[in-house]
Specification:
There is one protein chain. By secondary structure, this protein is mainly alpha-helical. It has a domain at about 45-145. The chain has helices spanning about 1-10, 15-25, 30-45, 45-60, 65-90, 90-100, 110-120, 125-145, 150-155. Helix 2 (about 15-25) packs parallel to helix 8 (about 125-145), helix 5 crosses helix 7 (about 110-120) and helix 7 (about 110-120) packs antiparallel against helix 8 (about 125-145). It starts with a helix and ends with a helix.
Length: about 160
């Protein structure tokens, strides 16, 4: 049951695997299986986001009830894409991977994929960069959730 829950959490925008991994740790799940399930769950929406999200958002931006939200999503995707491109230059693949991989608010597979689609980065290249970023975020969140960073911090913190 918990494996299904973390799978579903991993697919939710904003929360993604960053929220699912701590749930897995808190419920004492097998971390190898939890990690794999979270990665699959986080990556499942990626091809759909890349292929369809921009088209749907552009279609809906002038609709009465959804227009404001869709416009917000378009602006976020364009802003994220421009920011990535400005910082990365020719290193866009690595920048996208790091954008997705460093678990900060507003980053992740959903936003990274949307930004890549606005930049016309290419489907295969985008999916590979996002996958590597999700793997990286999973490792970071797993270590953080299990207290490794806290333990290292306590070990190397100045005494005083």
């Amino acid at each position: 049951m918990w494996y299904l829950i973390i799978f579903l959490i991993s697919m939710v925008p904003i929360v993604e695997l960053r929220g699912a991994i701590p749930v897995a740790v808190a419920n004492d799940l097998n971390m190898v299986w939890a990690y794999i399930i979270c990665i699959v769950g986080n990556m499942l929406p990626v091809p759909f986001i890349y292929l369809f999200a921009r088209k749907v958002l552009i279609w809906g931006k002038d609709k009465k009830y959804i227009g404001k939200f869709f416009t917000f999503c378009i602006e976020k995707g364009e802003k994220g894409g421009k920011k990535l491109q400005a910082k990365a230059g020719k290193g866009l693949f690595v920048a996208l991977m790091l954008f997705v991989g460093i678990p900060l608010p507003g980053t992740g597979a959903w936003t990274g994929t949307l930004a890549a689609s606005f930049l016309d980065m290419g489907f295969k290249k985008s999916v590979i960069a996002v996958t590597l970023g999700v793997i990286m975020a999973g490792i970071i969140m797993g270590l953080a959730s299990m207290g490794v960073f806290g333990g290292l911090g306590a070990l190397f913190a100045p005494k005083g």
